[in-house]
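Standup notes
- DV: blocked on the single-chain target, sequence here:
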Amino acid sequence: MKARAVVCLIMFSISFSGFGQEVRPGQYLSINLQPFSGVSNKVVNPPGRSYIQTSHLPGASFGLNYLKLYANSLAFTTGLNYQITPVGFKYDIEKQDFDLPASYTGMYHERIDDYSVGQVFVPIRLGYFLKGRKWNPNVFAGVNAMFITSYELEYSVTTIDDQNTPHPLFSSYLHSAQHEPKLGLTYNASINLSRVLKKGNLLSVGLTANLSSATITEGDLYLYLKNGVESSTYSDKGSYLGLNFSYSFATKKSSLTTPPVRENAVQKTKSSSTMVYAEFLGAGLGFTANLDQRFKKDQSSGLGFRVGAGFVASYLNLPIGINYVGTGRRALEAGVGYIQMVNLDPTNGDQKLKSIGTTTLGIRFKPVAKGFGFRVNWDPFYTGNGMQPLFFGGSVGFYF
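- DV (later): unblocked, structure below
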């Protein structure tokens, strides 16, 4: 069924090729959502037994990406995304095989769907766009650089018999295949249809496939039978098939689509390369005052750095980082950084110094020249206990 859907979408895409309107070359900032179903999780039971079965549960990934479309219809995209991969299995138990209460007259059924594994990944993909009447077919392929964290998942089920005596029924112990955080690669391909909306923005829908050769999650499952304990194994490589939805904001059009500047045209207003801003949460963790500076003079885009100072609880936070800001008044911002936390209260028994790594992906709203600017960011940070992915921040400041 899934193979038929892929073939149908390919034929549908081909039927749209070769006609009028096309996506304009330029830079885009994309919000992506991919609901999917895992295809690589499996349960291996003892010979002759099939109590525990694989359950394919829905997962999803979402993120913020940068898209560059060239005049020759080639495209490149990258960004920062978060993937939620469910852990699922189910079992059916015959009453005569277990110490079940008398109230169970038939089979005992349970579906385990309470657990999921979250991973941050950076997509690196190349694509190609075709012309279409209203929808422009396109294909992308590449890799996902995934930050595989270390984790453990435990679950158990106990029944109570008619004498109120507890009996273990089922237990599981699942964990990451690697006991230390590591960087892994998965392979991704998608076929999409994109439509040009007002202001040159894009709406895209399609199918996506993600393939992995390395195991992400593994572990053991136990059933406590009357005549002993039976164990099965669980594993998942993280491969999936899913849908792809994205909305892309046009941030800078190609020079091929804009009229040439006349010789007597007025020179462009110089942009400010310096911003002072106050940040709440974000890459400063608390409330911080920051200086942001581009390396190029009179440019509000390109490579630069930020330094700041602030407080959270009894700590003085000193964030510093390198970042990149895209062009246009609404621009992509991405960066990495480091926070030195200094404990100002020696009576709390905590260590004097702490170090935290940070990453930033977001949108920066800039004035034409000088004036107020705003930032909205996703800022996962890293400590000795692993990564904390669900952390966000906002800023308001002034360019001068």
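- Follow-up: The domain at 269-399 is CATH 2.40.160.20 (Porin).
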